[in-house]
Amino acid sequence: MSTSRSPGDLVLMTIDQLLIWSRRELASSDSASIDANTLLCFVTGKNTAFLYAHGEEFIRQFEAATFENLVNLRKKGHPIAYLTGSREFWSLDLTVNEDVLIPRHDTELIVETLLSVSESLGGTHLSRVLDLGTGSGAIALAAASELPNWEIVGVDISQAALRVAEVNQRKLALANVQFVQGCWYQPLKGTCYEQSKFDIIISNPPYIRKDDIHLDRGDVRFEPIMALVSDEEGYADLKKIIYGSAEFLSPNGWIILEHGFDQAKEVRRILLDSGFDSIQTHRDLGGNERVTKGRTSV
Ligand SMILES: C[S@@+](CC[C@H](N)C(=O)[O-])C[C@H]1O[C@@H](n2cnc3c(N)ncnc32)[C@H](O)[C@@H]1O
Q1: What is the 158 CA–ligand 1 centroid distance (Å)?
Q2: What domains does the chain contain, in order, with CATH numbers?
Q3: Confidence class for position 183, pLDDT limits 50, 70, 90
Q4: Which one, of 170, 164, 169, lies nearest residue 227 by Cα?
Q5: How many Å lie between the centroid of ligand 1 and the Cα of residue 187?
Q6: CB of 201 within 8 A of CB of 276?
């Protein structure tokens, strides 16, 4: 990449030339063109329409240097969301970094399921949702934005992840959510929630097997391992969440769980053995069984 300067402290490369250069650098990726545009928009603070309309213009030298650095990191596989520090989820612009899982669009299926279940609940008491393994706060904050009269609690074992969740909460100014640090239900023991309980427990827990070959590919290589992998063929945390729910779920309360595309049958079996009824699995847009819900009768 050229580093020569023009009199106005601009690098002698136009927006068009930078895009051509970066697409060539990223050519081995399926998303080369989108990634190049996203990174240049991020660096310049402009949108794609501006880049296309002003292709002959130069950008500032420090922007060109930052862009070059980001393109090189992307070439090494670093996820776009970590490079730009943001990811959209359920129309919320979330801050993300290497301490949190990058929220997936597939996980919006949990929010959709939560909203359909919440409609059927309506009661006189203050309704509550517990989001276990909240990470960036994606699901909890989407729930808080859609259910402003509900109380939402997000739990995560990672203090670093909760710092990101709290940044997002402040940015989105959602007052009806709070975040608590600890292992699954443990930080709720001895609190008011042991008495008042939750109407709905939701979770996108770690559920990938330790030996899954996908852990060595794509964005996943850069994400926190504790957000991804679970013992017992990927079922250990799903089981802890299901077994522990008895203490914290209201009578007729619902549990809604994301799991791997090939784990639905076993999750249904565990829910049935644990006394849940009305068990149903929902498919994602790709037709895969990804979210299972069940209702407790006691
Ligand atoms: C798959 S990520 C989900 C993050 C977020 N809910 C989302 O959907 O984008 C799983 C989360 O569970 C958290 N986690 C892992 N083990 C945990 C535990 N024992 N107790 C609480 N949280 C845990 C991880 O730190 C991670 O943030």
Answers
A1: 8
A2: 10-76 (1.10.8.10), 99-296 (3.40.50.150)
A3: very high
A4: 164
A5: 14
A6: no
Q: Is the pTM of this model over 0.85?
A: yes
Mean pLDDT, range 80-100, rounded to an integer: 98
Q: Distance between CA atoms of 237 and 76, rounded to whole angstroms? A: 32
**SS3 track for 175-203:** CCEEEEECCCCHHHCCCCHHHHCEEEEEE
Cα distance between residue 28 and residue 156, in whole Å: 36
Q: Is the CB of 157 under 6 A from ligand 1?
A: yes
Identity of the amino acid at 17: Q
Give the distance (Å) from ligand 1 centre to CA of residue 193: 20
CA atoms within 13 A on the CB side of 165: 32
Q: Return the pLDDT at 1.
A: 56
pLDDT tens per residue, range 1-23: 544 444 344 467 899 999 999 99
Atom of ligand 1 nearest to the CA of 131: 6
Read off the pLDDT of residues 27-44 as tens digits, 9 standing for 90 and up: 998 899 999 999 999 999
Strands, E assignment, 31-187: 58-60, 86-89, 92-95, 128-132, 151-156, 177-181
What is the spatial distance between Cα 71 and Cα 21, in angstroms, rounded to a whole number?
Answer: 10
